[in-house]
Amino acid sequence: MTDEPSKIAKAVQISRKTLAIVKQNIVFAIGVKVLVLLLAAMGMASMWAAVFADVGVAVIAILNAMRAMK
Fold first, then answer.
1. Is pTM, for the whole model, over 0.85?
2. DSSP H or E segment with residue 2
3. What is the DSSP letter of 6?
4. CA–CA separation, 70 vs 13, rounded Å?
5. Is 47 helix (H, G, I), strand (E, B) or coil?
C-alpha cells in the first residue's frame, strides 16, 4: 500500500471486473440448477445428473473466477 491517490482508479476497475465475474457465476449456477430441476421434475434427470451438474457448475465457476487474477 502506498499513499498514491492514482491507484484508486485501478482499484475501482478491479472491483467492477470482479463484480461482473461474480454476477456471471451466480446467473450461470442458478440457470443450470433450474434446468436440472426442471429435467428432474419431468423424469428426465436423475439424482446423479444433479450431483454432476452441481459439481460441474462449481468447477466452471472457480475457473471463471480465476480470470480476475490476471
1. no
2. none
3. T
4. 13
5. helix
